[in-house]
């Protein structure tokens, strides 16, 4: 990937394992800078396992995978921390620290990822909260926010270190459809400003509404809509 600066994720011949069992084999795909890519597939088809492998929550035993310039095979702990600083991760369950304010949730991540200057941290916090439309929320506790607002804070948190890519696992799965649509809009806006997005979803309507390249986990491997003709109706 060093020779391909436009590639944010490069997967060549990977096998994705879960508990020692292969879930997906012969996985090949790239994600380019600024691209938006969906991952779909039936329950249990391997979407989450694939994403977890990309952010080094599951080990890579086979294949050549590089994410944000970091090789994942035999990755060292130090490089895992570096990898997580270069990517943003958004889950279905919002995973905010519930006993801390929005500001403290964001400061916590900034301190853990090497930020030191309080003035710079405050400035960055204001920037990311503005981007997700939550400027006034710094002193709020998570329970004072709606589900959609909590997910916006998670997206703001994921943006803190200007990641090259947002990896999102069913980010609208726990939200009402209308709120989910607003979150999709936000992802699209962030994507248009240059951040790549790789998003697992079960929501076929969003793919119709916000069309983009689709990767499909099926029969133990990954199919790519740019290489195979998918009928959207058979995606799930
Ligand atoms: N912690 C785990 N331990 C063992 N097996 C697991 C674990 N998590 C998932 N699996 C298995 O790995 C396979 C892939 O699961 P995975 O969660 O990646 O699928 P998914 O496509 O994300 O599903 P969903 O759409 O339901 O989130 C399934 O057979 C699942 O049962």
UniProtKB/TrEMBL annotation:
Keywords: ATP-binding, Cell cycle, Cell division, Nucleotide-binding
Pfam families per the UniProt record, alphabetical: ABC_tran
Keyword Cytoplasm: no
GO CC aspect terms: plasma membrane
Highest taxon of the lineage: Bacteria
GO process terms (BP): cell division
Single GO molecular function: transmembrane transporter activity
Domain ABC transporter residue range list: 9-235
Family: Belongs to the ABC transporter superfamily.
Function: Part of the ABC transporter FtsEX involved in cellular division. Important for assembly or stability of the septal ring.
Protein's UniProt name: Cell division ATP-binding protein FtsE
């Amino acid at each position: 990937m060093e020779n391909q600066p436009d590639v944010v994720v490069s997967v060549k011949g990977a096998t994705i394992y879960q508990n020692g069992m292969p879930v997906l084999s012969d996985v090949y795909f790239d994600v380019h800078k600024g691209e938006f890519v969906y991952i779909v597939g039936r329950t249990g088809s391997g979407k989450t396992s694939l994403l977890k492998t990309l952010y080094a929550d599951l080990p890579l035993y086979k294949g050549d995978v590089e994410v944000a310039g970091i090789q994942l095979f035999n990755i060292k702990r130090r490089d895992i921390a570096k990898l997580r600083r270069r990517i943003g991760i958004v889950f279905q369950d919002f995973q905010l620290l519930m006993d801390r304010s929005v500001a403290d949730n964001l400061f916590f991540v900034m301190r853990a990822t090497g930020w030191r200057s309080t003035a710079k941290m405050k400035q960055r916090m204001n920037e990311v909260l503005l981007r997700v439309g939550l400027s006034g929320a710094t002193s709020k506790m998570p329970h004072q926010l709606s589900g959609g607002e909590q997910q916006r804070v998670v997206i703001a948190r994921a943006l803190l270190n200007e990641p090259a890519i947002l990896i999102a696992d069913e980010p609208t799965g726990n939200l009402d459809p209308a709120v989910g649509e607003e979150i999709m809009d936000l992802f699209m806006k962030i994507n248009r400003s240059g951040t790549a997005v790789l998003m697992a979803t079960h929501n076929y309507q969003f793919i119709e509404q916000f069309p983009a390249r689709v990767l499909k986990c099926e029969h133990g491997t990954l199919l790519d809509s740019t290489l195979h003709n998918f009928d959207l109706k058979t995606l799930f």
